[in-house]
Amino acid sequence: MGAAGTSWIVVPAPFGAARLEARSGRLVRLSLFRDPGAAAAGVSGRPASRPAPAPLEAAAEQLAAYFAARRREFDLPVDPGGTPFQRRVWRALMEIPWGATRSYGEIARAIGRPGAARAVGAACGANPIAIVIPCHRAIGSDGALTGFAAGVDVKRFLLDLEQRGRKLF
Length: 169
Fold this sequence. Notes:
Layout: E1 6-13, E2 16-23, E3 26-33, E4 46-47, H1 54-67, H2 84-94, E5 102-103, H3 104-110, H4 117-125, E6 138-139, H5 152-166
Parallel strand pairs: 1-4, 5-6
Antiparallel strand pairs: 1-2, 2-3
Helix pairs in contact: 3-4
């Protein structure tokens, strides 16, 4: 998973844990786990020392504020990698307002590829930086919550958190 030069930390999440990975001062991965013990398994690189490197510390603080419904947007340097198509999809995901959803088809149309709804779904599935690149806001055309790496129940939790949080602002 993590490559040479990658630092990582595991932070608590309301449904388990999140593993944050950074390389060269940029967040490269945010993975969600229901089992906190699994969050540190299979990671190469080095765990962050205390205090964590700046990008990991900032990401952990912003993620905690998001889970408390005190943060709607993230202000982090990210490097998700990906193909040009995936990066177009991920940029479109980042334009979906907090608490809102868009269908895969709507996202495909927004990036100028109206017939690419399935490819948009695949790009969402390949998103390495969950929540910051909000693939949980992508839904089926019928409103169904379709696949999510951490499970559809975590996707529902994140959408519910944002819907409840909308009422606080």
